[in-house]
Every structure is written in C-alpha cells, then in structure tokens.
Amino acid sequence: MHPRLLAFAARAVALAIAIPAVLAPLGAPLGAQGARGEGVGPGGTFPYASIFFATGGNLTSTDGINEYIRKGDYYTVSNDAISYGGGVRGNWGRLVLGGEFATVDYGEEGNPNNGRNIALKSKYYLAQAGYAWYAGRHLNVYPLLGVGVGSVDLTLSDRNGGGAPAAGKQVTFPEVVLHPNGSSDLVANYLLFEPAIGADWLVLRSVADRFGVTIGARLGKRIAPNRATWKLDGTKVVGGPDAGPDGPFFRLTIGIGWR
C-alpha cells in the first residue's frame, strides 16, 4: 500500500479512538441539560436537517510549491488560508448524511521588483456521513467523515511576459515557473478525506416550532492521500510538487434547520 495511504489509515484510526475519549467527559453535562429541557418538544431524539453557509481557516503546507516558485523569483504563498462555501445536512435515524463544497483562498503575492505575481486557490466537494452522538432538540454533536475530490489552482504571471516554455516537448513544472508566457494557470486534482467533529445549535422561537436558525462549528483535518497531478491548459505537466491539502481546519456555519 502507498505510504501516504498507510499514514492516512493510521491517522483515521487514531482519530476514531480519540473522539470517544474527548466526548466522554461531556456526556454528563449534556445528559443533565437534556433532563432540564433540551429534549423537550417535538423531534428531540434524532438530529435535525439543515442548509448552511460555512467559513473558517485552514492550515496546509505550501512548502513544496514555495520551493519551486522561489527559483522563479516569485514571492512565496502562505500556509494559512480562508475558506468559504456551504452545504446540506440530513439524517436517517441517528445517521447524519450530507454534502459540502468550499473554496480555499491562500491569497495573492506580487513581486514589485520584477512584476511577477502568484495566486493560489483550492476548491473541493465532499459527501459526508456521521453519527449523532448527541441529538437534543436544539444541540446536535456528531463525528463526521467526508470523502470527495478537489483541485488546486496556481496562477503565475509576469507583466514582462517571461517567455514561453520550449515547444515540441512535454512541459515541466520548473519550465512554467521560469517562463509563464504572460500568465499560466496550473491545475492539480486530488482525492480528499476529511474526518471531523461538528456541533450545531438550532434556535427556535417556541417549544412547538420545528423550523429555525442553525449556528455551528466543525473541527477536523483535511487529508489528500494521493499525489496531485498538474496540468496546463489540459496538458500534463511533469515534475511538479505535491499540492494536496494536509492540515487542520476550523469552520463556523450558519443556516436554517428543520425537523
């Protein structure tokens, strides 16, 4: 098995072991809250459905990309990024099912000394499944695993042109970095796993209400087990860095929920 897949499996098992240990101390307070009225009213047994907007922060190593772009005299890009997107969450009994999409923006850096500019973004789409560890009328707490695909978009530009890679042969990543031909848009696709733990609060106007506003948070890790393959205008580019996301994230969500 590929070493990155082995590493992912080990981390997933470690997370699965850690989640019960982290949640166990919360069991008594949540149980007491349910006794005081958290489960009062219709639908206090199963998780509720929601449509939401999400935003937050991500930490991902961009060292591989920065190692290459330094040779082209570009400014380096940051390891931290802002994400924004949305999704939907439903249930089948206590099983939590959903989907989510997001754009991750690492920013844009320009070198005023030579007119070279770099911009880095990523986007991904996930199918998610989890289990409602706690499903009160207002509060839902659930571990969640997302599986999907994503892409990294690296734009290199030079106001002076920068020349073009040699024609008649397969282009390499270092050649595109040195000769962006005015502007080059490099794209790499990756497979993504996202283990996380989430919590949502459903704000209702009265005990009888089933429809309200949701506020939530998610904490987890994004893991790309395969090496990303780079392309330029649909043509494969060889010798590029691994660009799949591999780091922790935190997201806040707000939306509408119902039972």
Report on the structure:
This protein is α+β, with helices and mostly antiparallel strands. The protein has one domain: Beta Barrel (Porin). The protein is 18% helix and 51% strand. The protein has four helices and eleven strands, in the order H-H-E-H-E-E-E-E-E-H-E-E-E-E-E. The chain has helices at residues 3-23, 27-38, 63-69, 173-178; strands spanning 49-59, 80-92, 95-111, 116-131, 134-135, 139-158, 183-203, 211-223, 229-232, 235-237, 246-258. Strands 1-2-3-4-6-7-8-11 form an eight-stranded antiparallel barrel.
Note the main attributes of this structure.
259 residues; alpha+beta
Give a brief outline of the structure.
The chain has 259 residues and is α+β, with helices and mostly antiparallel strands.
Mean pLDDT: 82
Which structural class do you get from the secondary structure elements?
alpha+beta
Q: What's the story with the biggest beta sheet?
A: 8 strands, antiparallel, barrel
Give the termini distance in whole angstroms.
43 Å
User: Unreliable segments (pLDDT under 50, ≥5 consecutive)?
Assistant: 1-9, 19-24, 26-43
Count of the domains: 1
Number of strand elements: 11
The CATH level-2 architecture is identified as Beta Barrel
**Percent helix among the residues?**
10-25%
Morphology: elongated
Order of helices and strands: HHEHEEEEEHEEEEE
CATH class: Mainly Beta
**How much of the residues is beta strand, in percent?**
over 45%
